[in-house]
Amino acid sequence: MTSRKATKSKRATLQILPVTVSQLLSAPQVGNDSFAIFDWELNQVSVVGIVRGYAPFVTNVQYSVDDMTGPPLNVKQWVNTQNCTQTFASPGTYVKVTGSLHNFSGQRSLLAMCIRCIKDLNELTSHMLEVVQAHMQLFGKVQELVAFDVNMNIATASGFGSGGGHLEGISPNGLSTIQDQVLHVIRRFSGCDYGISLEDLKTQLAYLSMRDIRSSLVFLVNKGHIFSTIDERHFKSTEH
Q: In angstroms, rounded to a whole number, what is the distance separating the alpha carbons of residues 82 and 27?
């Protein structure tokens, strides 16, 4: 009885649950328009990511928000027609979105209560730490814990926290989390004539240091995952 009261008390302190896009997209649907992470039904949640797409409509604006933990998430924001000074986030902008998860015509979308542009990229790291803290606060040690690193990556370690697993920061394809991010971005731009430049790569991965990006490029070239095109500062993926 005491344990249940303690759990309710912990959940009461988390009016807005910090989550990742991957968690929202994989959360089981437990009702007509409700979702849950483990045994807790989602209410208000917050995600942090970069705006990849922007589509304005008469009554709403739809965004594609990517935090690099999974496919981009559709975010819908209703337009306040009485507020002519309302501003919107443009592609390439980092944002923090607070809202509730819904199912619109078979597509999961986050109905935004608030969208705030982020200028300090330290908020990316802070959000991921909050995700881990909230998860542990609510669920404690579970058999399968979703573990995150500060580079906005996600991996699953079975038995993590109970002595049964160890998170090495290696993705399923054998790359480190940073190398995997660099390859992911290069693949997205491999349809361009010359691929992506080092400068544009840095813009896309603003939360990574240039040293980490350069070392990842050297590794990926040596392993045959990418190749340089018109010069040593433009890259394409060997598979796209």
A: 35
